[in-house]
Amino acid sequence: MTVRFDIHDQVGLITLDRPDALNALDIESLKQLRSHLVELRNRDDLRVAILTGEGTRAFCAGADLKSTRESPASYAEATFRCTDAAAAMGLYIRLMDLADLTLFKPVIAAVNGHCLGAGLEMALQCDLRLASANASFGLPEARVGSIPAVSGLHRLLKAVPPAHAMQMALTGERIDAAAALRLGLVSEVIEPAALLDRAFALAQRIAANAPLAVQAIKKLSRQTAHLSDADAQLLTELHWGVLRDTHDRIEGRAAFAERRPPAYAGR
């Protein structure tokens, strides 16, 4: 298996495990990653995921260029035809985009080492990003005659100030962990040996909260980003109303009044 899935109480740890290839993503790795995320989504006992890379050299150095270099189909065939060759053309990109999984449980990226190209595009799809002090980030696609193919530029423009996002994409240059923290690409920089411990501490803190409320917050963050304030408020009120009479909201208020830890059930 090139992607491991380990369970720690209510947290699922997903590890890209191709250290000899700097945890580069090939099609088989992406299939395994998506399978683990679907399992996480469907299991009521799991509330948060951590995504990391094996070793300290790389979170993910990008797409495995050896496995994605050639395609037997043209782009037009990939768009309009349903042949095996056409399917292979667009398969990698479709597997990389996780939006179709409708996963509203939070995913924390614990970025250890290089986070480049498809690796950064994967990290940008996570809800929180922590970096080890030796991490580096970049979109080097222009240097090999391509562009970030899975909305990497679009998501980076939302994650950091546009001028910095454009400089990264146009030059293909990397930034280090300190710069990533300064720009807001990551929320914390941690020494490499303590990275996973900090990721688990955050994951467990999130998992202790009401699961439906946590998922509603993530869903709202994705669905309201492009809306006006008025439309965002309408959608927010709808989610608040859905949660109002849930077991967990009643339990949370009761636990607060009784000065005891809440026992959330996810319903």
Describe what this molecule looks like in 3D.
The structure is a single chain. This protein is an alpha/beta fold. 47% of the residues lie in helices and 16% in strands. It contains 12 helices and 10 strands. The protein has a 6-stranded mixed beta sheet with strand order 1-2-3-5-7-10, sandwiched between helices. A 4-stranded mixed beta sheet has the order 4-6-8-9. A hairpin with a 2-residue loop joins strand 1 and strand 2. Helix 10 packs antiparallel against helix 11. The radius of gyration is 20 Å and the shape is globular. The mean pLDDT is 92.
Q: Per DSSP, what share of the residues sits in E-state strands of 2 or more residues?
A: 15-25%
* Multimeric state: single chain
Termini gap: 34 Å
User: How many helical stretches?
Assistant: 12
Q: Low-confidence parts lasting 5 or more residues at pLDDT below 50?
A: none
Strands of the widest sheet, in order across it, are 1-2-3-5-7-10
Total strand segments: 10
The outline comes out as globular
Rg: 20 Å
Indicate the percent of residues in helices: 40-55%
Task: Report the major sheet.
Answer: 6 strands, mixed
Following the backbone from N to C, one meets helices and strands in this order, namely: EEHEEHHHEEHEEHHEHEHHHH
Query: What number is the mean pLDDT?
Result: 92
Class based on secondary structure composition and strand pairing:
alpha/beta
